[in-house]
Write a structure and sequence with these properties.
The complex is a heterodimer of chains A (about 210) and B (about 240). Chain A is an all-alpha fold. Chain A is about 65% helix and about 0% strand. Chain A is built from ten helices and no strands. The termini of chain A are far apart. Helices cover about 45% and strands about 5% of the residues of chain B. Chain B has helices at about 1-15, 25-30, 35-50, 60-75, 90-120, 150-160, 185-190, and strands at about 145-150, 205-210, 215-220.
């Protein structure tokens, strides 16, 4: 695999060489190289995306160990399907789609296993979508550092209580900063649906995070 | 009218990225509408908080564990049959096939076992036919006396009825209930007498079904107290000789 070793190489490279370098280090090129048996290329892909994917799945599942496992499973699936990969979309979209599917599958498994907190007893019985009870914390706030840590925890908890269909677009948009178009491709839905779900997710969060706003 | 305006502006605010600036129309509306201004402030704050979550890093051994997992994948790929990865339909089909084979096997075996008995049961032995003679083995004056009772005779009868095409040897059931039991006369008795020394040897009976299956019944030595032999000649067993 061709990679830059010094800054000079980049500075003095002719435009065509730069183009070539850029091409060989693109995600598509790395996956192409992986397909031909270049393990370093796959290692490069992993190092590019491991934190993003782990973080994304962690935000979705609120369980770090599980998130690491699922992130690894994501890369295993990418590797396994390397021969079937098509360049129709960006690699990041492709890998995020796999990660999303795994995370949602995990959330559904948990639901089936009835791994719901005791607050689940207070779920609505009017047939609406079940939501875990997470009343706003109205205790007085103290030290700013503690407040920040507590606020992050509160956000993570609040995100964790969102229904999965609202959770994924919100994280992709507000945590990862992805475009509506990309989110729509990852979630295999329309852009309008994505916007509507993000809006509703923020509405839920505003209610739950009232004390911090 | 005002509500329509608020809705439009809020819609625009929702879609803004954190560092983007809103349109002049929205800016003007935010100056006039307190509700929308408050909404905008809260929305901005919320997005800042959510955005501050940042990225959680993968553990340092992530690559190592992934490599191990991939190596495991490759080694598993050497075995083409990976049941755990089969789809539900494939698993169901496999289970159904195995069950079908098992049931079929059981039915086949039972049919094979039951067939000869049923055939023979239907074929009652006619009285005019000569009955199979009781087997009288010669007395064996050896140290390990035994009787070999074979069903060759009865098999022969059944074999004659089935015809020569049926080569498979099988057990034969013969109903002798309506027939008179054979009586051993004195002459018979003498030929059927064989010595049993119960004090020293165990009594053995070997049964052979003619198919190579042999069954040996061993009766252990029986003692009757002091094993004294009565001098009276009316005793059941003569001295050194036992009547069978």
């Amino acid at each position: 695999m061709n990679t830059l070793t010094t800054i000079d190489e980049l500075a003095f490279a002719s435009p065509s060489q730069q183009e070539v370098l850029e091409d060989t280090t693109s995600d598509h090129a790395l996956l192409e190289a992986t397909r031909t048996g270049d393990e370093d290329a796959f290692a490069e892909l992993v190092s590019r995306y491991r934190n993003q994917i782990t973080s994304y799945i962690y935000r979705m599942t609120s369980d770090y160990d599980n998130a690491v496992d699922l992130a690894q499973e994501t890369f295993v699936r990418v590797y396994r399907a390397r021969d079937r990969y098509q360049r129709s979309y960006a690699f990041s979209t492709y890998i995020y789609r796999i990660a999303t599917n795994l995370a949602i599958s995990e959330l559904r498994k948990r639901k089936r296993r009835k791994l719901v907190s005791l607050t689940g007893f207070f779920q609505s019985t009017d047939g609406s979508e079940p939501k875990e009870l997470n009343p706003p914390d109205c205790r007085p706030l103290q030290d700013s550092e503690l407040v920040d840590a507590e606020r992050r925890n509160a956000v993570q908890r609040a995100i964790g209580t969102l229904p999965e269909k609202y959770r994924a677009p919100l994280i992709l948009r507000d945590v990862d900063g992805r475009s509506y178009d990309e989110i729509a491709t990852i979630l295999e839905t329309s852009e309008g649906t994505v916007k509507s779900r993000i809006s509703r997710a923020r509405g839920f969060l505003r209610e739950k995070m009232r004390a911090y706003l | 009218m005002r509500e329509k305006k608020c809705e439009t502006v809020r819609h625009e605010l929702e879609e803004l990225m954190p560092n983007d600036e809103c349109s002049i129309y929205a800016t003007q509306h935010l100056r006039e509408c307190d509700d929308c201004r408050e909404f905008h402030q809260k929305q901005t704050r919320l997005r800042q908080i959510v955005g501050s979550l940042g990225t959680v890093e993968a553990p340092p051994d992530f690559d190592f564990r992934l490599r191990a997992r991939l190596a495991n994948e490759v080694s598993n790929a050497a075995f083409p049959v990976r049941v755990m990865q089969w789809s539900f339909a494939s698993k169901g089909f496999a289970v159904a096939t195995i069950l079908l084979l098992l049931v079929g096997g059981v039915v086949y075996v039972r049919t094979i076992l039951n067939q000869p008995v049923q055939q023979i049961a239907e074929q009652t032995i006619e009285p005019s036919q000569p009955l199979p003679k009781p087997v009288e083995n010669e007395a064996r004056p050896s140290n390990a006396p035994s009787i070999v009772a074979s069903d060759n005779t009865s098999r022969r009868v059944a074999g004659e009825r089935r015809g020569p095409s049926n080569k498979r040897p099988s057990l034969v059931a013969v109903d002798l209930g309506s027939e008179q039991a054979p009586v051993f006369s004195d002459a018979h008795r003498h030929s059927a007498i064989f010595p049993i020394d119960a004090s020293t040897e165990s009594f053995k009976v070997s049964l052979d079904d003619g198919r190579g299956n042999a069954l040996t019944i061993s009766v252990p030595s029986i003692t009757f107290g002091s094993q004294r032999v009565l001098p009276n000649a009316n005793q059941v067993a003569q001295k050194g000789v036992t009547v069978w």
